Each structure stands twice: as structure tokens, then as C-alpha cells.
């Protein structure tokens, strides 16, 4: 991050240069003193820093004024004020304009462009499996002094993430090397009907007609995909993780870092080193996967009767290099590279440069080796080595089971309100692997069907993907039926909850004339909002069924070596018909799922409304740092949290005023994370106001190691004062429910929604049911904000020397 600028930058009389309000530590005292001059020695002003929630908004909407100006920041994320308030610190409240002249100065932190501002970011939908796998890392139960188990859990998650990269690149190899270069180009019937493949056909006896050279040419596709993933990760790394957080003095009065929540640690939002290491390892794994796809079928031929001894020796040497490279990749992934107790700016230069470079060199040697002339080599059947999909899926299953064991051990040591008995992380990892299989297998299924014409892939001698992918596709209809069944169960539950709530709705509106339609609508909204708390009972069973069906698919493919339709030929007619139907339907559904993601991404490129919807998904899914998968969409909090921390630190130290950081929805999570990061003295001048907040309801339950009861209690104890607003009709926000009895001190009573039941002289039209939005429209909001400011101690402007030396500059910090 660069230097933060204030709206009231000034010009020094000596040089005439503009000096930013956030000055370095060596700024002369007289220069700092002039910036906080106020008429009549009035007390310092108060500030409300607004942070919006998912989906984003405009500064004009947040501040309620069409005239707003940039205070500090850039086009990606910035702080805005009303134009008339740009120099509000210099003026007493009575000289300010607008309806809030007696209240605090209001600023809006707009961060929506971090996730949904650029239309090209909609393509991040294709990285959805990587994002979900990264979430599994943060979903572990609390540690309770079991650091070894925590590290083992993180290791298994990183290995699962590595298998997802290998699976994606293996899927690209299946399309390019097997379906196009080996099966279709090697078949006169397939290549003859496609002029663009004619130069690869053996019928033409051209230079490219040999199978090894066709494979070497087709390796461009998965190799380019690996390079693209590296480029995207490196570009977003430069924009997010590469900038160190602010440098702040070590807080001697604060508790030791080891006893504080992880989000307090200075290096938590600085993932530069781990992302660089994992990016190198995953890039190398991708190149090595492509190299294996070239080397394995080539060495299989060289070891046969028609092979050459020299070529066979070179093949064994390449296989040795592949094994050594795989060991090096796994070793780098196993190494714990994330440091949170300090801002670790060092990079493992040798690892991040040599590892992918060496893997690329092995790939180049494999291309040369495959392109070595073998005149008698002919391709037939499926590409040798495509059984690797079975190994990958078995490896993913074993790693997820190991994750589950670690999660159960941690949950048993510290049970709490953790969903699925601590198994939320493994369940989400199963879904990540399922999504990866759908993306990889769906593309292969559709392309095989296209290349094979009207035939069914796997049902004859034509073009066909690996048998396992067809078995996995066959399981999709059964999974969708199970999902529909779960949704029906929860729909019935909503109806029953609504009927149970109907007699109680009028208790909140005494004296009003009942309206059956209005009452039913309010009750239905509350019942649907309660479904959020039932999400674990959808995710858990669905993940378990996915794991079981995946195991059945592996068993069926391994035991029969045939697609389900052929394997069920000897079964009873009903079973055979069901297998045929599921196979055909699953193949189409797997392809449709891929097409839906691509179509949605393309629509988001053209439609701002669709782009906003996709941005909401990333607001929730990319809050966490990329600790497990470097190709996941970037963590926007690594920019937003330091931004907020910088603003709170510099404003309070510069002006000495009281500050309320006011966060809605996901903005409340960012606000809480920023409050954890500020200096202990600054927290004494800061109040926290959250509304529609998922801190306890979602983050506290799904990420208990970071937002669990212990961590929220710590936040309540460290911040000067905190109030939380919520509604029964809100499907995302909820009360904090602190376990030490201080919950009512934080939580307000549930806000009335709608504000008015029927028509009144003040509300002649029906009041809307607000649900998750428009909390500031409730009169309670202004009262609670005023109450927070009243609870903060009255401040005086800091002495000039303190203002000058209290400024902070960007850079590395040791704590």
C-alpha cells in the first residue's frame, strides 16, 4: 500500500510542496500541528467509518448524498466523503452542512471492485473447486493446544488442493493428448471428417502422423493451461499479497501473541510467502503432469518388442526425473510456509524459481523424447496411462478421510457449536473434489461425444474418455435426486415453521388489525431466513453421498473396466435400463454443468447485474487468504483489512477523535478483522457497530477456530464498546450469543421488521419487509450509534509531538 492521503493536505510555506496528512515519522512537529487546527480550540471531531456488505454499493448511496469525493485510495478500493465534509476536521459541527451536522463525520469505505468491479473476474467461476478447497483449510475446529494435529490437518488440505490441480491438468491432457491426438487423429474415420486434423492423420504419412509427435503437439493445450493458471495467480498476487501491511509499534501492554486470536497476529493478512511457494509447487505439478502424459505411453512403446534400447534408456531417465520432481513438489507443499506471528516478507527465491523452471525443463525433454522418430508406432484404443484418474480419485478420498480423523480429534478436544461435529472442512473438501471431477470429466465427456458423432462414448469402438469419468457421470443423477429430496424436506420444514409462527406475528404489532396475507408473508420470511441454520444438514449428507458414490464409481471402473451401461448388460432388465439411463443422463448433466459455468461467466461479462450477482459469491468465498490453493481467486481481505486498519490508526492518531466503525453484512466481518489488527491504544478510541452480521451465525459456526465463542469474547473484551443489530427476517445476520452472559451488552433486541404492520398516517403505503438490507433506515440505528459515541471517552487533540511521531509508514514489521 502507498501513503494514505487526507482530504486536507496542505502546502508547506518553505518549499511549496504538498505534504500528505499521513506523514512519515520524521515530520516536524509544527507541520503536524497545523493540520489539526480547529476554531476556538473545539474538541476533536467524531468519525463514522461505513463498510458495505456483499454485492457492494456506491459511495453516494452509502452517504446519502449525490456529491461525494475521494479521500484516499484508488479505483479498486477507496474511502469517500461527502464533498461538503472534506475539511470537516477544521470546522466546528455547527458550520457543517446536512442533516447529520450534529452527528459524526461520515466516511464510506467502498471495496466492491476488489471482487466484482472488473468483468473479466467472472471467469474466476472456473476456479470454483480451488476456492472451495481453500475454504476447507479454514473450517477446522479450534486447536485447544493441539498444534501438531492442526498442522497435520492443514497438510492434508494442501495435499487435497494439489490433487485438484493435478486433476484439472490431467483432464486437459485427456482432451488434448488422448481424445484429439491419440484416438481421433489416429482413426481414419474420425480424422477424415475433420479437415483441421488431417495433417495429423496416419493416412497422410506426414511428419506429424507419428503418435509421439501428435502427443507432443497436443501437449501445448495442458501446458498453456498451466501457464495461464500461473499467470493469473501471479498477477493477483502482485495486486493483493505483495504489499506488506502497515508497520505499527509493538504493543507491550497487550497480551502475548500466542494467547490472542489468530486474526490479531500481524502477519495473518500477509500471505505473500505461502502463496509464492504453493504457486511454484502447483505450477511444477501441472508441468510434470503433462510430462507424465507424454512419457508414460512413449516408454510403454519403447519397452515393447518394437522399441529401441537407447530410447528405452532415455525413457527410464525421464521417469526418474518425473519421480524426483513429484517428490520435490510434495515436499514443498508439506513444508509449512505460512507465518502469522510476524510479517514475513522473505521469499524462497530458489524454490519459487527453480522448481517450476526445472519442471518446465522436464516437460521440454518429454516433448523432445515423444517427438523422437518411431516409424512403426501406431495408436489404437485409449492412451496408455489414463488409469491415473483412478489413482487421483483414490488419493483424494484417502486424504479426505485423514482430514476427517484430524477434525474429529480436534472437535473431541474442544466441542462447541461446530457444524457436522467438526467435519465441515472434510465435507467441503469432498464438494471441492466433486466440482473438480465435474469440470474435468464434463469437458472430456462432451468433447468425446462431439468427436464420436452420434455414438454413445464408451458403448463401442469409437472415441471414449476413461471409464472412471463415465462412472462418475452416472452417479450425478442419483446425487441430484438426493439433493432434491433434501430440498423437499426443508421446504416442508419451512411450511411447518411458518404455520407455527402465524399466531405470534401480531404480538409485535399490538392494536393492529390482522391481515392474513400480510401475516403469512412475514411468517414465511422468518421461516425462510431460518434455513441458514439448517445448511449443515444439506451440506453434510450431500458430501457423504458424494464420497460414497465416488467410491462406488472407482470400484465399478476398476472391477469391470467397462462403462456402467455395458457392465450392467447381464443384470436384470430394470437394473440394465436404469444404468443406461443414468449413464446417458449423467454424461449430459456433467457437460451441462460445465457449459452453465462458462455461459454464466460470459453473461457476467456483458451484464452488470449478473456481474454483481457473481461478485456476491466471491465476497463470501474469497474472504480467506490462499493458504491451501494458490490458483484460487485472490483474498480481497488482504487489501481491505489493511486499508481499514490504516485509516483507523492514522485518523485517530492524527485528530484524537472518537471513531465508530460501522459494518453491514460481510462488511462487519472486515470491520471486526480490522479492529483486531489495530494498536491497543487505538482500540480504546474505537467503537464497533455491526448489523446484519454473519460473524456468529455463519463465520462463528463454520470457521470456529477464528470466529468461535472464544474469539468473539476476546473481541468484545478488547474493543471499547460493541453493539450488534439483527432481525428475525434476516437470512444472513443474527445475534452474537456470547457465552459468558454479556450477549445482551452486545446484541440489541431483534429489530421490528416490517417497521409498521399496516397503513398509518406516517406510512400510508405498506412498509416493506427489509430482511437483510436497509438497517440504517431503522430509527434504532441512529440511537445505537449515538450511544456508542457516548460510551467512548471524550478525547482531546494529541500533542503536536505525538501527532508527528505517531504517524505510520508502510513497510515490514517484526511484530
Looking at CATH, which topology of the domain at 46-114 and 635-791 would you report? Rossmann fold
Helix content: 40-55%
Largest sheet: 7 strands, mixed
Helices, by number, come to: 28
> Compute the gyration radius: what is it?
30 Å
The CATH C-level class name of the domain at 46-114 and 635-791? Alpha Beta
Termini separation (Å)?
18 Å
Strand order of the largest sheet: 4-5-6-3-7-8-9
- Low-confidence runs (pLDDT<50, min 5 residues)? 1-37, 249-258, 801-815
Supply the CATH architecture of the domain at 46-114 and 635-791: 3-Layer(aba) Sandwich
Number of strands: 9
What fraction strand?
A: 5-15%
Secondary structural class = mainly alpha
Tell the overall outline: globular
Q: Provide the residue-averaged pLDDT.
A: 82
Structure notes:
There is one protein chain. By secondary structure, the protein is mainly alpha-helical. The protein has a domain at 46-114 and 635-791: Rossmann fold (3-Layer(aba) Sandwich). 54% of the residues lie in helices and 5% in strands. The protein has 28 helices and nine strands. The strands form two sheets. It has a seven-stranded mixed sheet with strand order 4-5-6-3-7-8-9, with helices on both faces. Strands 1-2 form a two-stranded antiparallel ribbon. A hairpin with a 6-residue loop joins β1 and β2 (18-19). The radius of gyration is 30 Å and the shape is globular. The two termini are 18 Å apart. The relative contact order is 0.14. The model is unreliable at 1-37, 249-258 and 801-815 (pLDDT under 50).
Amino acid at each position: 500500500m502507498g501513503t494514505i492521503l487526507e482530504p486536507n493536505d496542505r502546502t508547506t510555506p518553505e518549499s511549496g510542496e504538498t505534504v500528505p496528512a499521513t506523514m512519515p515519522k520524521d515530520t516536524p512537529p509544527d507541520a503536524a500541528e497545523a493540520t489539526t487546527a480547529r476554531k476556538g480550540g473545539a474538541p476533536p471531531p467524531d468519525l463514522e467509518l461505513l463498510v458495505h456488505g456483499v454485492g457492494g454499493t456506491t459511495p453516494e448511496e452509502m452517504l446519502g448524498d449525490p456529491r461525494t469525493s475521494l479521500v484516499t485510495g484508488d479505483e479498486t478500493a477507496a474511502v469517500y466523503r461527502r464533498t461538503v465534509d472534506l475539511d470537516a476536521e477544521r470546522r466546528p459541527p455547527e458550520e457543517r452542512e446536512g442533516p447529520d451536522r450534529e452527528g459524526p463525520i461520515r466516511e464510506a469505505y467502498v471495496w466492491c471492485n476488489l471482487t466484482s468491479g472488473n468483468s473479466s473476474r467472472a471467469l474466476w467461476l472456473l476456479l470454483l473447486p480451488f476456492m472451495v478447497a481453500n475454504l476447507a483449510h479454514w473450517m477446522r475446529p479450534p486447536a485447544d493446544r493441539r498444534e501438531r494435529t492442526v498442522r497435520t490437518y492443514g497438510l492434508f488440505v494442501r495435499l487435497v488442493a494439489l490433487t485438484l490441480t493435478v486433476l484439472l491438468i490431467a483432464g486437459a491432457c485427456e482432451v488434448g493428448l488422448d481424445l484429439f491426438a491419440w484416438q481421433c487423429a489416429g482413426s481414419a474415420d474420425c480424422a477424415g471428417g475433420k479437415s483441421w486434423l488431417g495433417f495429423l492423420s496416419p493416412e497422410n504419412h506426414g511428419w506429424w502422423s507419428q503418435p509421439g509427435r501428435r502427443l507432443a503437439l497436443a501437449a501445448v493445450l495442458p501446458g498453456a493451461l498451466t501457464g495461464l493458471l500461473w499467470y493469473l495467480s501471479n498477477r493477483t498476487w502482485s495486486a493483493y499479497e505483495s504489499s506488506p501491511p502497515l508497520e505499527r509499534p509493538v504493543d507491550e501492554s497487550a497480551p502475548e501473541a500466542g494467547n490472542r486470536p489468530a486474526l490479531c497476529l500481524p502477519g495473518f493478512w500477509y500471505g505473500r510467502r505461502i502463496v509464492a511457494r504453493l504457486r511454484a509447487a502447483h505450477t511444477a505439478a501441472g508441468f510434470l503432469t503433462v510430462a507424465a502424459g507424454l512419457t508414460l505411453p512413449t516408454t510403454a512403446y519403447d519397452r515393447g518388442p518394437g522399441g529401441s534400447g537407447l530410447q528405452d534408456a532415455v525413457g527410464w531417465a525421464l521417469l526418474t526425473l518425473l519421480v524426483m520432481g513429484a517428490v520435490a513438489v510434495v515436499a514443498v507443499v508439506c513444508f509449512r510456509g505460512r507465518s502469522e506471528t510476524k510479517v514475513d516478507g522473505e521469499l524462497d527465491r530458489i524454490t519459487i524459481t527453480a522448481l517450476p523452471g526445472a519442471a518446465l525443463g522436464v516437460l521440454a525433454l518429454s516433448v523432445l523424447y515423444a517427438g523422437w522418430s518411431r516409424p512403426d508406432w501406431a495408436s489404437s484404443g485409449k492412451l496408455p496411462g489414463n488409469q491415473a484418474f483412478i489413482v487421483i480419485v483414490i488419493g483424494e478420498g484417502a486424504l479426505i478421510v485423514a482430514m476427517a480423523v484430524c477434525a474429529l480429534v480436534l472437535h473431541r478436544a474442544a466441542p462447541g457449536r461446530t457444524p457436522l461435529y467438526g467435519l465441515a472442512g472434510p465435507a467441503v473438501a469432498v464438494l471441492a473434489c466433486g466440482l473438480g471431477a465435474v469440470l474435468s470429466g464434463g469437458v472430456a465427456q462432451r468433447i468425446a461425444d462431439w468427436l464420436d458423432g452420434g455414438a454413445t462414448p464408451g458403448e463401442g469402438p469409437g472415441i471414449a474418455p476413461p471409464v472412471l469419468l463415465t462412472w462418475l457421470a452416472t452417479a450425478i443423477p442419483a446425487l441430484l435426486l438426493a439433493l432434491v429430496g433434501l430440498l423437499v424436506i426443508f421446504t416442508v420444514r419451512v411450511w411447518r415453521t411458518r404455520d407455527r409462527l402465524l399466531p405470534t406475528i401480531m404480538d409485535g404489532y399490538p392494536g393492529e388489525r390482522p391481515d392474513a396475507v400480510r401475516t403469512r408473508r412475514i411468517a414465511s420470511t422468518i421461516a425462510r431466513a431460518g434455513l441458514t441454520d439448517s445448511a449443515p444438514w444439506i451440506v453434510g449428507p450431500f458430501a457423504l453421498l458424494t464420497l460414497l458414490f465416488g467410491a462406488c464409481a472407482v470400484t465399478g471402473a476398476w472391477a469391470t473396466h467397462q462403462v456402467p451401461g455395458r457392465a450392467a448388460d447381464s443384470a436384470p432388465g430394470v437394473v440394465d435400463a436404469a444404468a443406461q439411463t443414468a449413464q446417458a443422463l449423467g454424461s449430459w448433466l456433467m457437460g451441462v454443468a460445465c457449459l452453465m459455468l462458462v455461459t454464466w461467466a460470459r453473461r457476467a461479462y456483458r451484464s452488470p447485474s449478473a456481474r454483481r450477482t457473481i461478485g456476491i459469491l466471491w465476497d463470501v468465498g474469497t474472504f480467506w487468504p490462499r493458504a491451501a490453493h494458490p490458483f484460487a481467486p485472490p483474498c480481497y481481505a488482504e487489501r481491505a483489512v489493511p486499508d481499514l486498519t490504516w485509516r483507523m490508526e492514522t485518523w485517530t492518531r492524527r485528530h484524537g477523535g472518537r471513531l465508530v466503525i460501522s459494518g453491514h453484512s460481510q462488511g462487519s466481518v472486515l470491520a471486526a478483522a480490522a479492529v483486531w489488527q489495530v494498536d491497543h491504544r487505538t482500540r480504546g478510541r474505537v467503537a464497533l457497530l455491526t448489523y446484519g452480521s454473519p460473524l456468529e451465525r455463519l463465520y462463528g459456526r463454520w470457521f470456529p477456530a477464528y470466529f468461535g465463542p472464544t474469539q468473539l469474547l476476546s473481541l468484545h473484551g478488547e474493543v471499547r464498546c460493541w453493539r450488534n443489530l439483527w432481525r428475525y427476517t434476516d437470512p444472513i445476520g443474527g445475534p452474537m450469543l456470547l457465552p459468558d452472559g454479556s450477549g445482551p451488552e452486545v446484541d440489541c433486541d431483534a429489530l421490528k421488521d416490517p417497521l409498521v404492520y399496516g397503513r398509518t398516517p406516517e406510512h400510508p403505503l405498506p412498509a416493506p419487509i427489509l430482511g437483510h438490507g436497509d438497517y440504517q433506515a431503522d430509527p434504532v440505528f441512529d440511537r445505537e450509534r449515538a450511544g456508542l459515541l457516548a460510551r467512548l471517552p471524550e478525547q482531546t487533540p494529541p500533542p503536536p509531538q505525538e501527532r508527528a511521531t505517531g504517524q505510520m509508514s508502510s513497510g515490514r514489521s517484526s511484530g
